[in-house]
Amino acid sequence: ESSVGVAVRRSVDLLVGLYAVVKAGGAYVPIDPDQPAERVGYVVGIADPVLVVTTSSDRVVVPAGVRVVELDTLDVSGFSDSPVGDGERRAPLRPENPAYVIFTSGSTGRPKGVAVPHEGVVNRLLWMQDRYLLASDDVVLQKTPVTFDVSVWELFWPLMVGARLVIAEPDGHHDPAYLMNAIVENDVTTMHFVPSMLAVFAAEPAVTRCMSLRRVFASGEALPAQTASRMRALLPGARIHNLYGPTEAAVDVTFHEVTGADRTVVPIGAPVWNTQVYVLDGRLRVV
User: Fold this and answer.
1) Which domains does the chain have, with CATH numbers?
2) Which segments constitute the AMP-dependent synthetase/ligase domain (predicted)?
3) Residue 217: is its pLDDT beyond 70?
């Protein structure tokens, strides 16, 4: 149940680092190298990782005594490239062991670490594949910062089923023009937007160039019906999916595919696998 900090900007090195931690049986703790040193120090202090993985160009300042390993300078020639098994781990990897620890803003304003177990992540990924049927000719654009849990399915879902993964430039998720070019050049079929960014994206005249899109997922905020309707009109070949869920519940707990009937409000939908949803009143009583 060791945790390992991963302080790498969005890149192939980031992907390698995350997969290495998970395969070794640890829980990765994503750290944004661009965050202030105080926040990085707080996250490292609370998570207490056995080490922090970074690169020579992304290297962050961590509290004294914390071991730092640079992926791009580490000599691994003396290690076997065969799959890692329980025999090489300090203890067998179990479904209830944490896969990652993501720090949210927290209700107090101080970052709060949320540990999510392998069984929760696997349930979420298997449900997503059963529901949306990603295939080998699909292309997923990974653009969500790794400190947000949407990045989990972006990083693991496509490679789990043999689809292609395209990794956006570190700051590319802020630039609609960059995103459009990335979609067109790589024939991206599947991607995610925070609704406010989806509205900005949908307002771009050139969005109709993105004809390869088949699945557009939205979560993190309420999805305005007007934004969803505009996307459906501009890209009739793409289906718009509204997802909802807290970080504590392995990314999402409900889903809804937008239809023409969603003119004023887009529902959050029905529960994903192995999940129950309750509607409560102001006194937390079941309605």
Assistant:
1) 3-93 (3.40.50.980), 119-271 (3.40.50.12780)
2) 2-283
3) yes
